[in-house]
């Protein structure tokens, strides 16, 4: 950091303005980045859950998707390094998003008491949704980190049998169940909030847009919860049936049984 | 039931009987109205002996009764010590804001008949300094907000009041007038989770005010100038878009779209 930067920080911390007596642009950047990282993660989840639920179409479908993400079209038989790299990038964005979003959390007993009592008294739909957002966000600090760390360090353990073994035999299904519910609710409420926050799709009638957005988001959240739950149930079933062959990998020649 | 409570109940019943007599003399009927219970917060921070408490008032509902009327009736017939604010009685002055069953509302625009259970709990607006019972000081807060966001036209042009003002496109004027309908009742601030947690937050009323001057062609300030007023976490970037302000505004101001508009402008500065 240069000397000028340090002086700038000192001036701003003491006076609230920059050396040029202007307000810092950092709060604007942070607000934008919180939204941008949230949107990237939400888009990632939208596709991730779709690909992950390929198991509903059979083991071969899930295997094909796995191989696609392992870069089979680039390297022969694919390589888990692609998965590991993707997990690392997502983990970095995830941590940055959590860091930015934490600024909004109630940070003391008094703040929490005032916010929660007020929200309960008022019983306002969008204010209640924010409680879901901070609760699921808090849960995701831990659940998301567990999942991403495993994907980063054991990317080779993805596949119809490998994933099912992890979910059933390694007793990860309770974690995945909580992760699924948290991530879908958090992303759903988050995307709704982004649309309201930046006035996207407002058109001639922003109030109508809000009602319409809420309806669409509700349908999407229910859809993703359902495919997520059914997929998880499929992995549990496969894992249960495969428990005696724990560790054995799937190959296309085995057929979709 | 204590003797004091019995005496109070007796007094209330006597008051109802008196009201009936007066009504009969005026050829009005109040017998048809149901009995409602208004539960009010009572506390006087300026009195060291005062302790925060809730007091129940039972009264007979009359046709078209608003909470303002009910409170006036309580003060006139049951408890003249109860404090609440009002001026216009017509949803214009914004003085009678309070939490009604938890929701920020204007007492003069709230009909008691809207509460099916007949039980209505009243609390003073949070985020403002409590004066007494249901009475809060929104005036000082609003004055500080106005000063903070420089709530006036800023122009280098010298004003000549003998000349007609520079014309403005009717659509733009309508937009400015629409935002100017704000009555500073404080319901948006009292419904805002950010304002509840962080007392320096400028609130929807402040952001609306900045938007009003930002779109007014008479005002020569640039977006950079407005950034200096609201470009921080106590301003536009503190807003979490929970939209309780929009949902509780008694004047139906377009707060949702105008706050989003200001955010888009400020993030580009």
Largest interface by Cβ-Cβ < 8 Å: A-B, 35 and 35 residues
Q: Number of DSSP strands of chain B?
A: 7
Q: What integer is the average pLDDT of chain B?
A: 93
Low-confidence stretches of chain A: none
Q: Distance between termini of chain B?
A: 66 Å
Q: In oligomeric terms, what are we looking at?
A: heterodimer
Q: Largest beta sheet of chain B: what is the strand line-up?
A: 2-1-5-3-4
Query: What's the order of the H and E elements of chain A?
Result: HHHHHHHHH
Helix content of chain A: over 70%
Judging by the overall fold, what is the CATH architecture of chain A?
A: Up-down Bundle
Fourth-level CATH superfamily of chain A? Fumarate reductase/succinate dehydrogenase, transmembrane subunit
Structural classification of chain A: mainly alpha
Strand content of chain A: under 5%
Average pLDDT figure of chain A: 94
The radius of gyration of chain B is: 22 Å
C-alpha end-to-end distance of chain A: 60 Å
Task: List key phrases describing it.
A: mainly alpha; 3 helical TM bundles of succinate and fumarate reductases; B: 269 residues; alpha+beta; two-stranded antiparallel ribbon; 7 strands; elongated
